[in-house]
Amino acid sequence: MVALGLVTATVGLGGAGCDGDSDGDGGSGAGDTGTGASGAGTPGSGGSGGSGAGNTGGSGGTGGQGGSVATDGYCALGCTTPADCCQPGQANCPSTQYPTNYTCDAGICGPPRCAVKSDCTANGQLPDYDCLTVGGNTQCAEPCTSDTDCTAPATCTGAADDGTMLCKATVAAFVCDDDTDCNGFGVCNAAGNACICDESSQCTSEYANTCVLP
Question: Domains of the chain: which residue ranges?
Answer without folding.
Answer: 1-214
